[in-house]
Hints:
By secondary structure, the protein is of the alpha+beta class. Helices cover 26% and strands 37% of the residues.
Amino acid sequence: xxxxxxELWAELRTQLGRQAKISRAAGLLPAVVYGDGVPSxxxxxxxKEFKKAYHAAGESxxxxxxxxxxxxxxxxxxxxxDPVSGNTLHADFYAVRMDKALRAPIPLxxxxxxxAIKNEGGVLVKVRHELTVEALPRDLPHSLxxxxxxxxxxxxxxxxxxxxxxxxxxILGPEDEVIAVVEAPRSDEELAAxxxxxxxxxxxxxxxxxxxxxxxxxxxxxxxxxxxxx
Length: 230
């Protein structure tokens, strides 16, 4: 176990499919754990404890998941959320081998202050919000720092090659890929045009949200069966 790793305790779950609502009503989150050499198991974890672990670890930091007395080093691999309420409906835990490198998306943390924004009124455009890295599980960073101080003038860019990777971590992707850029501020005419643009009909937006909610709920209901077939 890696020092200071987040820990979660899970119980084996027999309430599958539509019955998963019973688990949620009891304050439990339906989930599945699987991985390299680990058979798929339907489990449930405390919603409250899961929120704490996810807030601290995200999807790029190891968590120790205890299932029926057996500890697994896992990544929170996939989450299904209600698109309206934002509540977590289902989670996947991917058990990893500590001696085998893997690829994972790592969020970018934008730090520092850009002179182009402060002094010239430039507009920061964040082109990427995460990057894929390759590393051993214990070396996976929680985030990658992007220093905005490098953006000194309008038009300046931060490229993938400008980001420093921690020891043991390889950032994947083209070196000249744009991560962030400072654009010139919009003119009064452009701002006026934006204000005059038509707003989407509220009823249509509501219908779209309802459709997304139904799709996510359907995915959560069938996730158990799909994982068990693996």
